[in-house]
Protein: CBS
Amino acid sequence: MASTVGDLMTTHVVAAFEEAGFKRLAVSLRMNGVSALPVLDADQRVVGVVSESDLLAWLAAPNLDEAVFAGDMPEEPVARDLMSTPAITITEGASPREAAERMRRHRIKRLPVVTEDGKLLGIVSRSDLLRVYFVSDGELRETVEREVVRGEFDLPGVAVSVERGVVTLDGTVPVRSLIPRLIRAVRRVEGVVRVHDRLAYDTDDLVPLQRAR
Structure:
């Protein structure tokens, strides 16, 4: 069965409430060896993320001392003042591929995992998503053969080999239209990096029908 974000996430998450002060945030980041913290409201819903970059941006603000003295900026900002919002999150039922695409699109390293109403469940990182590839070539070959080639398609004439996560399919299938379907199914197997196709077919069922006269 395909993994979900909920299967891969870390559930022991360090988070901060909106009222947490600058110093407390800095200490928490350092002590826990993380670069960002989810920020929660009173109902433990994720409302933002505060990172080392957010803290440094506040410290580097021009004329900081004058602004604090004039009351234009707080003497010690809290997470609510510093966080990036809205938070980029994902639900536990999402696929690793969805999570990876969201990280790529927003250029972030981790995602808070939330319930449908936004409450924090865990966090998933890039290294968590890569765990689906921590499988040996032998195990991957057995899975592709059992679940796809023999199971879903029942193709005794197709042989499977795997090297470094790259699956090669050799042999003959009854009809040509099976080949793209088979390749798509193999690509969906967790741990597959790429699929090489060396397949032949007995019948070309993709030839256009002759135009009626």
The chain has a mean pLDDT of 87. Residues 137-152 form the longest helix (16 residues).
